[in-house]
Inverse folding.
């Protein structure tokens, strides 16, 4: 008696497929670094900093050990002080807000737009207080916040502007990339990102030479030259091995992003006209790179029910993010509570992120779509 083979798992990423496509290039790059003996900073890092900054149309790139370091050192480099406050989103990975608290500044939160999950400029302005020195919009899921509005707001209120682009490699809005309108933009190269290292990595890109200089010192214990320390910094130098991996992958980023857009368009067609499975909307003027393809499950069957049903079929979706920032235990002292940011709280109950990596087939997307519709009862 023949048995039907179980369907292959569909995961949020496929690192094996990525390695197979790159062939021996990754191995050769790593061996090149090992043979060079230059493991910290050095020519691989410098080459990547230049290439990544150029890819986003900015003058300077400063590599960091992690995306979180890029955030909090970026805040310091643009002038945020412990006595200040910074406005950011309640619907993001916790590091966005925690980086503000990490330097001793006060976290000020403002609600997001329900249709895009991006920080609302009008609500951000309302959250500014007498100590606010900067705004930190988050470019969530692969599309940019309204940076023209945030730039105008910051110019009007004389505030600094740092962009969290951890999910926005190659994204643009109104023709601008992350880091072009802000005083600086930060990125993460965690393995699951559209451009991922073989582990951890980050970068800050900026048009400002003074910010780039400050960042190079901050990542090296505040040292402009060996054994001279002019400010308090830390050890956050991008490793040459990670830069070598990123140098191999960067030329493929736009093609991979284009494939993500193709897959997202197929999801859009498959979910067209459904209220119970409602895709997040594309912001006006945005070129989305779909780090996540996200829908809102808002019918009679809950998001968590749909998530569980997908897992039974070996489809591993995700929830980014199930708990808004202001309701985290670590944020209890920030003065917020349930009901303060209704859009963020509703999204935390509804969002479901479906596999959209560039190595999926059209048939994979159709299989996911059918499973989602069945689980949602539509």
């Amino acid at each position: 008696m023949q048995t039907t083979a179980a369907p292959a798992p569909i995961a949020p990423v496929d690192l094996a497929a990525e390695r197979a496509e790159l062939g021996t290039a990754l191995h050769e790059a790593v061996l090149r670094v090992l043979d060079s003996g230059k493991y910290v900073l050095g020519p691989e890092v410098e080459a990547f900093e230049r290439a990544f900054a150029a890819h986003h149309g900015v003058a300077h790139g400063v590599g960091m050990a992690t995306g979180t370091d890029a955030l909090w050192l970026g805040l310091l480099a643009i002038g945020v002080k412990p006595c200040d406050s910074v406005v950011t989103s309640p619907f993001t990975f916790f590091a966005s807000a925690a980086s503000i608290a990490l330097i001793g500044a006060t976290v000020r939160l403002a609600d997001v737009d329900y249709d895009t999950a991006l920080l609302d400029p009008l609500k951000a302005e309302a959250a500014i207080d007498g100590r606010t020195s900067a705004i930190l919009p988050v470019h969530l899921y692969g599309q940019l916040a309204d940076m023209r509005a945030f730039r105008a707001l910051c110019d009007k209120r004389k505030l600094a502007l740092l962009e969290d682009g951890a999910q926005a490699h190659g994204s643009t809005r109104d023709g601008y990339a992350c880091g072009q309108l802000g005083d600086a933009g930060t990125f993460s190269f965690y393995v699951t990102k559209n451009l991922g290292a073989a582990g951890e990595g980050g970068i800050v890109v900026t048009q400002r030479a003074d910010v780039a200089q400050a960042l190079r010192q901050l990542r090296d214990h505040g040292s402009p030259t060996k054994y001279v320390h002019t400010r308090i910094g830390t050890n956050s130098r991008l490793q040459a091995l990670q830069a070598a991996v990123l140098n191999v992958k960067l030329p493929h980023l736009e093609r991979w992003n284009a494939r993500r857009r193709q897959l997202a368009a197929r999801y859009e067609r498959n979910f067209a006209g459904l209220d119970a499975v409602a895709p997040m909307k594309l912001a006006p003027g945005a070129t989305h790179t779909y780090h996540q393809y996200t829908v809102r499950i808002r019918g009679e069957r809950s998001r968590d029910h749909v998530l569980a049903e997908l897992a039974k079929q070996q489809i591993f979706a995700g929830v980014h993010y199930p708990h808004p920032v202001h309701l985290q235990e670590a944020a209890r002292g920030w003065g917020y509570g349930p009901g303060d940011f209704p859009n963020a709280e509703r999204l935390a109950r509804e969002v479901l992120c479906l596999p959209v990596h560039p190595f999926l087939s059209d048939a994979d997307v159709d299989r996911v779509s059918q499973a989602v519709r069945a689980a949602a009862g539509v």
Observations:
- The chain has a mean pLDDT of 96.
- The longest strand covers residues 60-64.
- The longest helix spans residues 253-270.
